[in-house]
Amino acid sequence: MADGLLALMLGRLVAFASHDLTNLATQNRWPLLLTFVDMVWGTFVTALAALAGFSAIRTLPPGE
Predict the structure, then answer these.
(1) What pLDDT does 5 receive?
(2) For the purposes of burial, counting CB atoms within 10 Å of the CB of 43, is it exposed (0-12), middle (13-18) or buried (19 or more)?
(3) Rounded CA gap, 22 and 11, in Å?
(4) How far apart are CA 62 and CA 64, in angstroms?
(5) N or C: which end of the chain has fewer CB within 10 A?
(6) Taking a C-beta distance cutoff of 8 angstroms, is the pair 48, 12 a contact?
(7) Would you state the pLDDT for residue 63?
């Protein structure tokens, strides 16, 4: 599970980085701090949502 979570977090970090670094490069007043905070926050929230979904699925009874 830990390997999957780390892979998910890395993938989301790359996705958030591509969005935020594009904004940093193209927007005149896009703050550098916002870029880093958004990348970390987005990665954390995505991991938290994935863990919540994984936990919810594990509590369901097995299907047929």
Answers:
(1) 86
(2) buried
(3) 17
(4) 7
(5) C
(6) no
(7) 73
